[in-house]
Each structure stands twice: as C-alpha cells, then as structure tokens.
Amino acid sequence: VPRTEAEERRVRHLAFLTESYAARYWWFEVLELVRKLCQTSLVVFLFSGTSGQMVLTMLICVVAAQLLSSFAPYLDHSDGRLAVVMQWSLFLVAFTALLHKVDVADELPDSQNVFSALLYGVTLGAPSITLGAYLVEARLELRRGLPLRAIKIRRARHWTNRELYRAQSSR
After folding, report:
1. I need a surface site. Which of 30, 65, 99, 123 has the fewest CB within 10 A?
2. Which is nearest to 40 in space by CA: 29, 28, 56?
C-alpha cells in the first residue's frame, strides 16, 4: 500500500532500521533485535554457567540461520550470506564452549591444543570468509567497469541513511 507524503515524513527517521531489508520484510529488524536479546541476555539469566546456556545459544543460532535462509530478507544477497555465516560461526563457538564445559578435552592428551586451534579457526574464519567474498565481489564489479569509489559507496548504503547515500552517489 503506497504511503502518503505525511506518512513518509513520520517514519523517515526510522529508515536506517529497515533500509537493508526488502520492503515486505520491514519487520525483520524487530526479529533480529529479539534474537540478539535472547543470545546475549536470556541465556545468561536462564542458564548462567551451565551447559544449557550453550545449548540454548546453539538452538537460537540454528533457528536464526534457518529463518535468514528461508526468508532471504536482505536487499543485498551478500548481506544475507554474511548473516547466515555469522550465525553458523556463533553456533560453532557455542559448540566449542559446550565441549569445553563438559570437559571433552580431558579424554585426549593434546586435545586442549586442538580446541584452542578450533576456537581460533572459528572465530577468525567467518570474518576471513566474509572479507574474501567482499574482495571477490569488488573484483567482479571492477571487471564490469564500475569504479572502486562507486563500489564503496554502494556498500556503504547499509551503514548510512538513504539521504546520505543519495547525496554521495550524485557527486
């Protein structure tokens, strides 16, 4: 349903919350905020210091990754891929924490080194994959003849409001 100019003015200051999403998924930011609240606070208050804390975190990650994959709410598909990769990364960190909590490392002599390497790999792997994907995307866009400055501005639109993006693009 098209909005009137008065309705547009009333909600314009909230555009930064929804501009990364397709119009029909305007509500997805609310879901993301609930997910973040559950992953950071709910698990601490309900299961602080227990294995259940990690299990609930892992469950939230799986549900969030599935919702992101099913709905594909982001306008830019690379943002959607990043969100899914980060949920799986958080899942693996929680899984590693669960393994540490139940002291699986006690069963093998060098397992502490293995768990340390696994945790470093998981923690650094997702941002590395994301950076690599961004560089591949930038390279493809450069091959299409799009100048590097335009790529940066295009990517920056998700971090700024729509008016600033338009002002930078028109220069």
Report:
1. 30
2. 56
